[in-house]
Design brief:
The chain has 108 residues and is α+β, with helices and mostly antiparallel strands. It has helices at 8-28, 65-73; strands spanning 36-41, 45-54, 76-81, 91-100. The protein is built from 2 helices and 4 strands, in the order αββαββ.
């Protein structure tokens, strides 16, 4: 992200948000589940997509302190949990969050 001319603040915020999301997904993951991350950016925003398979249909703990912290660091966040997958022995989940590029003079 830094090489894409995002400010250090945006890069740090997204890294902290990713750490929080990945930790929540790892703690909820079924045994042997992988954790995949995809990063995309353009002139306006950076978008991070994290996928895994979790063990409960209730999804991630979206009312926890860590989750509220992620909401403060990002401009948008979505969580999509699919139906139970017999082959993967869990619920496939996708978390996607974005942060807009902001001018240095623009308040957050």
């Amino acid at each position: 992200m830094l090489s894409a001319d995002f400010t250090i603040d945006v890069a740090i915020d997204m890294r902290v948000a990713l750490d929080q999301v990945a930790t929540a997904m790892i703690l909820a993951a079924v045994p042997e589940a992988g954790l995949d991350c995809a990063f995309r950016y353009d002139e306006q925003r950076v978008r991070i997509r994290v996928t895994s398979v979790i063990g409960t249909g209730g999804g991630l703990i979206e009312h926890s302190f860590g989750w509220h912290f992620v909401e403060c660091l990002t401009d948008s966040i979505t969580v999509d949990t699919d139906e139970f997958d017999v082959v993967q022995r869990g619920y496939p989940v996708v978390v996607e969050f974005t942060r807009r590029r902001k001018d240095d003079a623009e308040p957050k």
